[in-house]
Design a protein that fits this description.
Two copies of one chain form a homodimer.
Chain A: H1 3-8, H2 12-23, H3 28-36, E1 44-49, H4 56-69, E2 74-79, E3 106-111, H5 121-133, E4 138-143, H6 148-154, E5 159-164, H7 173-176, E6 185-188, H8 196-209, E7 222-225, H9 234-251, H10 253-286, H11 289-298, H12 304-315
Parallel strand pairs in A: 1-4, 1-5, 2-3, 2-4, 5-6, 6-7
Helix pairs in contact in A: 2-5, 9-10
């Protein structure tokens, strides 16, 4: 039986190998992803992001517990950005979720996202597609960090959950991160700590400031308080996520179409970016041109802008740099 | 007099407008950057990064003070990733550095990095080149956040300074960020807080684990303790940065060549990435093809992988996706 069929039937070993192959950037995985694509779109994807130390893994563990109690199957992807230096990801706290590893309704995988030229997003989307095709009802995607790449990853989610904790340094820390505007639902974890109400108030103010909410189809982001370690507030939070889901799926058919268009556009853009850069760099390095160009640059024989234009003239058809 | 000449002569208004134009992605800026390129390479670039709330701005303020006391001129770039949703950057704490605004030897600019298709790095490098060409001895580049993009930005630096604070949540928070491996010099700020020695010990352990240090030419990252608010520890830190500078410039001519090659390669790669994607997306959107493709994807008429391959066949010469 081929991999596609095995994945559709939920074969755990094949799914695990497939996600590893995607993570490793093996080209064979691509053909299978093509075949899986028509079988995707059923799962509900929740992105979970926030700074290191806010307790994302503990919270995800509680969310799994809640979904399982409601009879839902769950796929979890923990995405750790790879260091460009070591090539390795450190997944220490994955261990917390391992108590679900004997539950057949839960499938947990970490990705090191070794993504070569294009970043993490296409690999993450590929892995989401696999969990979707294998039949999981919910897919939780946990990211580490708060950079632009994490924003890209959460674009693949239906509901983006941002995890904060009270008073992390500056009062404006929350605002600075930029990623906050991506949040559909916020949770202030470790809410027993001092300053929880202050953080909540700051968030509320931010949300009120964003009157237009053009990108959210009118959805007003909601805020929940939780203590994931004690399993407090998780039920309310999950109800809040369901509320957002209901908003997306039922409230406004026009908005749903817009949302799907937006998601498809992002997916294609991220993939094209990866493929195009990969193809050009392959050609440049194979031909030895790349090394030549870099040497010219080191010796200041030319400037990077002229070199880049030369590359575009040489390898692109009918395209030029936008003026 | 033309802009290039004015920038080389240090004309503040022209420099400010030039950096704004780069930030806005104006194509006119590109021609000037080409002309400036031969005049760059003299300034010493220090990247300063760390999570929100660790006190980066206060520390940078103290670093400026220290450099000025040594008679050095300083350019500062504060790079805030733009939210893809609002298009704006929030630069609240820039205010702290403004006491230097009457000092002619200091030039401070924030960038919102509206970078279109390619990310923040080419814009940041462009702005660094401008400050370099205008004659600043030191350029401090402060980034917000700890994602992959910030790692890319710090690649433009000679010395990368990572700012931490004691006991931010998990013990392993430091390790998780990934960006740590990019650090040449570490500073534990707010070192009067509980747990400072513990954080230092964890860092030391990490550094010891990285025995090979292949990417750093044998440099063993150093750790300093500081309280930037009270101006404590800053002098030692600056001496530590000078030590790294001396290592780069004098110790090993082979390593310096390698370092310069690495920097040039990164610079060219980041720019090619931006230009190539920009050119292809321009062509795709102008021709109406892009909208057509996304609609096909929404309706599941095809899959993103096949579409991306179609785009490569259509717009790239002699290139294919690496197999």
């Amino acid at each position: 039986m081929d991999w596609t069929q095995k994945i559709l039937e939920g074969d755990l070993r094949t799914v695990a190998r497939m996600i590893r192959d995607i993570d490793d950037g093996l080209p064979e995985a691509r053909a299978i992803l093509k075949e899986l694509f028509p079988h995707t779109g059923r799962a509900y994807v929740i992105g979970v992001t926030g700074s290191p130390g806010v307790g994302k893994s503990t919270l995800v563990d509680r969310m799994i517990q809640n979904l399982r109690a409601r009879g839902k199957t769950v796929g979890v992807l923990a995405v750790d950005p790879t260091s460009p230096f070591s090539g390795g990801a450190i997944l220490g706290d994955r261990i917390r979720m391992q108590r679900h590893s004997t539950d057949e309704g839960v499938f947990i995988r970490s990705m090191a996202t070794r993504g070569h030229f294009g970043g993490l997003t296409p690999s993450t989307r590929g892995a989401i597609a696999v969990l979707d095709a294998m039949g999981k009802d919910y897919i939780l995607v946990e990211t580490v960090g708060v950079g632009q790449d994490e924003i890209e990853i959460v674009r693949a989610a239906h509901t983006t959950l941002i995890v904060l904790i009270p008073g992390m340094g500056d009062d404006i820390q929350a605002i600075k991160a930029g990623i906050l505007e991506a949040g559909d639902v916020f949770v202030i974890n470790k809410a027993d700590r001092e300053g929880a109400q202050k953080t909540r108030q700051e968030l509320l103010t931010m949300i009120e400031m964003d009157k237009d909410r053009k990108t959210k189809g009118g959805w007003k982001p909601t805020i929940f308080m939780a203590e994931a370690l004690k399993n407090q507030g998780v039920e309310d939070l999950m109800a809040g996520i369901e509320e957002h889901r209901a908003f997306l799926l039922k409230k406004d058919p026009h908005y749903l179409a817009e949302f799907q268009y937006y998601r498809a556009r992002m997916e294609l853009f991220d993939l094209v970016k990866q493929d195009v850069i990969g193809a050009i760099m392959e050609q440049l390095t194979q031909s030895g041109k790349w090394d030549e160009f870099v040497q010219d640059l080191v010796q200041k024989k030319t400037d990077p802008y002229s070199l880049s234009e030369e590359i575009i003239d040489r390898y692109l058809k009918d395209c030029r740099i936008p003026q």
